[in-house]
Write a structure and sequence with these properties.
By secondary structure, this protein is an alpha+beta fold. It is built from 5 helices and 11 strands. The N and C termini lie far apart (about 60 Å).
């Protein structure tokens, strides 16, 4: 784990569960993004629509505990309120020479809802050009637009299994050289073949194909009940929060399904009795 990414080893589940978790993280975990832009002055070379699109794709730090989804907010207003909307302003003018407008020039009314990076270029202004606008950020979900996805990468694979037949292996080193992920290694002196980072194995089986032995001294497969989940956050939410929110959503879906199943069962029983 580091600041923006993490790798999980998940055991005792199947691919259907993993795919459900992946899709929920991508499409249903909410995050904050600019959804509406009011342009007051724009003398740059970019059209207002292109400018708004670029602003919408700037990742914003998200506070899920302080804000509501617009459709769930008690204000029931299209304009929103301070519980479902955050205002950001931008006022930059190129007085001398060319000026690059960066995401760090956005000023948010709530410092907790600010661009993840201050160095995302938005536009370039020629001398005497000005950009003045007010933007409104709201919570949303990736199922509506990719700008609301809290992660840039969310992928899983089966946990690889690599077995070395030490009796048959002559430590020729061909499998070590061909492995693109450097999973295999030779010990000091080149007398023994070993593993150093099995999680990175992509199960390409190049090491099996290149082995001169018959049958090959290296066997590669995968564990059907163990998965490797790789997640990279945009910075809108910490990786742990994105995963926890996805699990909560998945739990609610299971509960809703069981409730509907119980209702259908009661209806079927009533029909049978009548």
């Amino acid at each position: 784990k580091n600041e923006f990414s993490a790798r999980f080893i998940i055991e005792g589940v199947d691919s259907a569960f993993m795919n459900s978790l992946r899709r929920i993280i991508l499409a249903e975990v909410p995050s904050m993004a600019i959804d509406e832009v009011v342009v007051i002055e724009n003398s740059s070379m970019l059209h207002d629509e292109i400018l708004a699109h670029r602003l919408g794709l700037v990742p914003l730090r998200t506070d899920l505990d302080s804000y509501n989804l617009p459709k769930e907010c008690s204000c029931k207003s299209e304009l929103g309120c301070n519980l479902c909307r955050v205002s950001l302003t931008l006022d930059v003018e190129a007085n001398e020479g060319i000026r690059t407008v960066y995401s760090g020039d956005l000023v948010a009314e709530n410092p907790n809802i600010s661009p993840v990076s201050e160095k995302i270029p938005i536009a370039k202004l020629a001398p005497n050009q000005r950009l003045k606008l007010e933007a409104y950020a709201r919570l949303g979900k990736g199922e509506k637009h990719a700008k609301w996805q809290p992660v840039s990468v969310c992928a899983y694979k089966h946990f690889p299994k690599v077995k070395i037949n030490e009796k048959e292996c002559d430590s020729c080193g061909k499998c070590v050289d061909i492995c693109p992920k450097r999973v295999l290694s030779l010990s000091t002196g080149g007398k023994k073949l070993g593993l150093r980072n099995i999680v990175d194995c992509t199960v390409c089986k190049d090491c099996v194909d290149v082995c001169p032995k018959s049958p090959p001294a290296v066997e590669v497969a995968w564990d059907k009940d163990v998965f490797v989940l790789d997640i990279e956050s945009t910075g809108a939410l910490p990786v742990e929060r994105a995963v926890n929110e996805a699990i909560k959503i998945l739990d609610r879906k299971f509960e809703s399904f069981l409730e509907q199943l119980a209702v259908k069962k009661d209806e079927a029983s009533q029909v049978a009795e009548s």
